[in-house]
Write a structure and sequence with these properties.
Elements lengths: L9 E9 L6 E9 L11 E8 L9 E4 L4 H6 L5 E12 L5 E5 L2 H15 L7
Amino acid sequence: MGAGSPERGEVWLTPFPMPSRDQAQSKLRPVLVVSAATPEQTNGTVTCAAISSSTYRLTDFDIPVAAQTRLGHAMGMRRDGAIFCAILQTTSVAQLLRKIGSIDAHTQVRVDANLKKLLFPVSAPQ
């Protein structure tokens, strides 16, 4: 793992499998740490959302990010892409290779809202 303990809102490089039609392809990619708990509280693991430049099939849970914006620069992005809030993985902090950036408070609110919609859908009162 790179220097320091990963924190929510940080962007790290790690091997991350992306689902595809045939199989999950694991390659080195940026991920957003979405865990609120510290690695010490979760046996040395963090939950991460995928970040990818493949944006041809965005969903309501994804957040597009242009590389040449303040956010894109802060995240360490080289190309336009998206934070895929519906593609999550819990991984060992030992697999996190290097911190490359972080998101701003506004984007964190958007990520949190998308995770809440994904994991805790609002149902109609009965």
